[in-house]
Amino acid sequence: MRPAWRVADVRAAEEALMARLPEGTLMQRAAAGLARRCALILEQVYGAHVTLLIGAGNNGGDALYAGAILARRGAAVTAVVLDPAKVHREGLTALTQAGGRAQDQPPRTIDLVVDGIVGIGAKGGLRSGAATTLHRTLERRGRHGQRPTMVAVDVPSGVDVDTGDVPGKAVRADVTVTFGCLKPAHVVGPAAPLAGEVELVDIGLRPWLRADPAVLVPDRADIAQALPKHRPTDEKYTRGVVGIATGSMTYPGAAIMSTAGALAGPTGMVRYAGTAREYVVQAHPSVIATDRITDAGRVQAWVVGSGLGTDETAATAVRTVLATSLPVVLDADALNLLVGGTMADLMRGRSAPMVLTPHDREFARLAGEEPGNDRVGAAQKLAAHTNAVVLLKGDRTIVATPSGTAYANPTGSAALATGGTGDVLAGLLGSLLAGGLRPEVAAVTAAYLHGLAGREAARHGPVTAPDVADALRPVIEHLTR
Ligand SMILES: NC(=O)C1=CN([C@@H]2O[C@H](COP(=O)(O)OP(=O)(O)OC[C@H]3O[C@@H](n4cnc5c(N)ncnc54)[C@H](O)[C@@H]3O)[C@@H](O)[C@H]2O)[C@@H](O)CC1
Ligand SMILES: [K+]
After folding, report:
1. Which residues of 390-400 are buried (b: 16+ CB within 10 A; e: fewer)?
2. Which of 59, 162, 356, 387 gives 20 to 30 Å between its CA and that of 258?
3. Looking at the CA of 58, which ligand is closest?
């Protein structure tokens, strides 16, 4: 897992580390890493036109020192200083001594922009002067008429570093070069896609980061390790049998899609219980189907909700599943049925794992308020309140546990914003729970695989939920090979 830390924790670590080093060491390390990446992007530094956007703090200092390194290698470096009274003096001197220059407007030709407007000292959206300069800069073109490459220093300026919120205008970077550790804005919220590709430069900070990370990001190896490995001695109950209680005569598609998600997972068998049974068996002949949950036979986890509707039959289904001592995924309509009343009591009384999978509107109904600007905090709060793992869907899906650990999924894809893909996710998650994964591991794994499957499906054109379900098996196979 790749951890990301909040600003206060980064500052504390930097202070502890800086106390043992000659002044300016960290900035030199940061600038060296930044210049190295810019040089890689430019391929040929000599003769390249580099513009530095310089704000009032050390973020600008990093950019100025990196600019000095590039100027010494023959780049034409121009610093556009937003507030000359508050510029990083030593950095500016280093730049001019290396042959760079400072002015208040962007030059005509720009191959590469270094965004040193603001870093972890940011408050609110980009200020108006900075936004105007950014706008002008983005109108410029490179030596070959191309759009300039944007490299953000530490974070794209204008984002809220701790929450990943984007309160106003902000830089959209192609590459962000960050120092010491990732910050939440790189991995959650609307800020995450603005960071582009994130490169982490080691400045020796890691041993000094003593606080718990704000959020953890799984990578391929984590997911490959989490996935159950099949053994020759396996039978269906060691692989996990999952029960699906979704869909209805009105919404049979939800039942078919959640079953498809479950079948794509590492399950030994899928049982279905509900009024859409005939449709499900037609679409998936290997599924054992009954009308009622109580007749379903032995399962090791339940998925309930999507397409059930909210009538009495649906409420009975949710109640019946919650009354078992099995792990449960509560999705879609089940979440709406949880709002208020006896369901909440049933949830509180359970000791078996539960995973809630809301999108924003379902979250708002459940929590009584929108997820808001701090999606990690919101998911953590709902998880603590419901005693369930919460998987808050989004471009960067968040998984939060009742004890406060949070994960951000890095494989999100706009392709997944289409009807029925949530059903596939819930089914897959159920099959991972039935396979014995801890609920937060199952949720993180399901989100990751689902995102990869969405990307894979999108390579062949517009994506439908069946495409995502179909893409899951090869994605899982590839990952575990
Ligand atoms: N603290 C350290 O040890 C290190 C810090 N480094 C760099 O220093 C940065 C932090 O430096 P600072 O603490 O000086 O803070 P910043 O440089 O991030 O920002 C502070 C300045 O930005 C202005 N500002 C705040 N919000 C703004 C907004 N929304 N729009 C426009 N301007 C805004 C403020 O007036 C303030 O003067 C890091 O992000 C990193 O780039 C690196 O050199 C590595 C070491
Ligand atoms: K920046």
Report:
1. bbbbbbbbbbb
2. 387
3. 1
pLDDT in tens, 291-336: 999 999 999 999 999 999 999 999 999 999 999 999 999 999 999 9
For residue 41, which of 91, 104, 111 has the smallest C-alpha distance? 111
Q: What is the pTM of this model?
A: 0.95
Tens of pLDDT, residue by residue over 98-112, are 999 999 999 999 999
- Residue at a domain's end among 195, 212, 229: 212
Q: Which residue has the CA at smallest separation from atom 40 of ligand 1? A: 59
Q: Is residue 396 located within the same domain as residue 327? A: yes
- Per DSSP, 150 falls in state E
Question: Do 205 and 78 fall into the same domain?
Answer: yes
CATH number at residue 455: 3.40.1190.20
Tell me how crowded residue 405 is: count the other CB atoms within 10 A of its CB: 16
Pocket residue to mutate for ligand 1, from 52, 58, 178, most atoms within 8 A of Cβ: 58
Residue 395 is labelled as binding a ligand: yes
**How many angstroms separate the Cα of 146 from the Cα of each of 164, 285, 427?**
29, 55, 46
**3-class secondary structure, 260:** helix
Yes or no: say if 442 and 228 are a contact pair by the CB < 8 Å rule: no
Which residue's CA is minimally distant from atom 29 of ligand 1?
126
Examine the domain organization and report whether 388 and 450 are in the same domain: yes
CATH code for the domain in which residue 31 is found: 3.40.50.10260
Supply the ipTM of this predicted assembly.
0.97
pLDDT digits (tens, 9 = 90+) for 403-461: 999 999 999 888 888 889 999 999 999 999 999 999 999 999 999 999 999 999 999 88
Q: Is 239 in the pocket of ligand 1 (CB under 6 A)?
A: no
Whether 263 and 393 share a structural domain: yes
Would you say the CB of residue 30 lies under 6 angstroms from ligand 1? yes
pLDDT of residue 414: 82
- The verdict on whether residue 359 carries a ligand-binding annotation is yes
**Domain-ending residue, one of 212, 238, 268:** 212
Domain count for the chain: 2
* pLDDT value of residue 409: 98
Q: Which domain holds residue 451?
A: 220-480
Q: Are residues 333 and 278 in the same domain?
A: yes
Q: Is the CB–ligand 1 distance for residue 26 below 6 Å?
A: yes
Q: Which residues of the chain have pLDDT under 50?
A: none
pLDDT at 449: 98
Q: Which ligand is nearest to the CA of 114?
A: 2
| CA gap 341, 142 in Å, rounded | 62
Q: Tell whether 119 is in a known binding site.
A: yes
